[in-house]
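Handout, section 4.2: multi-component inputs.
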Amino acid sequence: MKQASILCGASLTDLYRQWAGDYPKFFKMDTLSKLGFLLAEMLVHDEPERFTFREDRAVLVFSREGCVANDRNYARSMQDFPSPALFVYTLPNIVSGEISIRNKWGGESSAFVLESYDEAQIWEIVRQAFQDSRTKSAFVAWIDCPADENYVTNAWLVDKTDLF
Amino acid sequence: MTKVYCLGCGVVTPVGNTPAGVYEAVRKGKSAFRMYEGWPEPYYASLLERGDFEEASFFDHILLQASRAAVADAGIDITGPRVGLVLSSIKGNVEKIDSEDVSLAVSASRLARALGVMTAPIVVSNACISGLAALLQGIRMIRSGAYDHVLVAGAEVQSRFIVTGFQSLKALSLNPCTPFDAGRDGLNLGEAAAAMLLSSCPFEASSCHSERSEESLWELVDGAVRNDANHISGPSRMGEGSYNALRVVLDSVKPEELAFVNVHGTATRYNDQMEAIALNRAGMQEVPVNALKGTFGHTMGAAGILESIVSMQACDTGVVLPTKGFSTMGVEPAVSVSARERKTDKKAFVKLLSGFGGVNGALLFRKGGGR
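Output:
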């Protein structure tokens, strides 16, 4: 199992240059998606056969606040001219989608909202996700981002054999 | 593998508040669409009557109403330590954006407290497949061995936030939506709540269900969530995620055993075309297909649960419901969609959904303990 995190206050642009650098769509993402994208880059950058379509890896993202930071950004735009570019990020699972798209992971992708950061509950749900017979590994992340400048992250890359 | 059954259902919709009543309304072609004043653009939608509602949250209110109905229908006690709660919604109380109440976690906690559920609730917020993904989560929780029963409840209320967002994407039709039709030009938004009580112990029920038998119950057999890995707001042209989700359920059923596939069928150009491609790739082009968005509109977080409940009712009476709004085949390759009610003697169906973030889900329902 591998683990990664991003400390609140880090420059996400610097991290992007360090870990990716070749994916300008990054700059269109909301903070939640940027964090998820970077955490995945940090965990899989040295994997062989990257960017080959695979269905055996799940993307499971957990939080308490979902996408509320970007919801506020959209709600502000809505008063004036509703922004479709902001609206498409007003779903907690877009971060899972961005990670799936970047990495060509066609397996399960899901977003869960929990009452609080509870590792026991997170790993219970992750173990349950491996009931999908085709899932062999998972990118798991707690990304709680109540505001664009205020977030907590913790991410893992886990194989089925690590858990069972 | 542990079998998971549906023991009870609850619904709150603009066309009825019982599963049987809603089913009859669908059969009679009823709907509750009308034009509403917008911000400033008007929109055509199927919304619930607020009446003189004065409580803090209409979303929390309908969620609790549907949940209580499902628990009452199942006739079991859900206050034990082996009962779970899964909530499905996309935007919950988003109109309360400046308050703590906006968090789906807060709604889930309130619902758990109101129902007496002792375990920590889980919210599945997976765009338009949330309801289906929440049912799948409920199945997995029971199969993990840690839960006997899981209540899965979903709801969506419409708001300036959602309406203006879909308008900004030019995804809404100002007319009744027409799934799979050549003239389809977008979706209609809808409001609803729906809940299902899932259980591995169908016979541990109250005396009012003494007639219950394995043959009389719907089983949620298996399902899958798959990503297109293509685009966050447009479906894969090859229906990659839907096709891959369907492949998983086809491990447990042959296409010819299916009464129908109840599809997403939002009536946007891209969604319906994508589903037609996925169904054809999966060898399901002969299976009857129907969509219920012409009755309810797109009820988002409630859709997967609500449309599954109506589909169980239809299959119980040997009916493949018509696709309201459809008249001329508008997808290529074609699928077996019809504006007329059809008959079936089959006792299994697949629920199919897709959503933003590239997510797709398929779930197999089967009656009568087959296989």
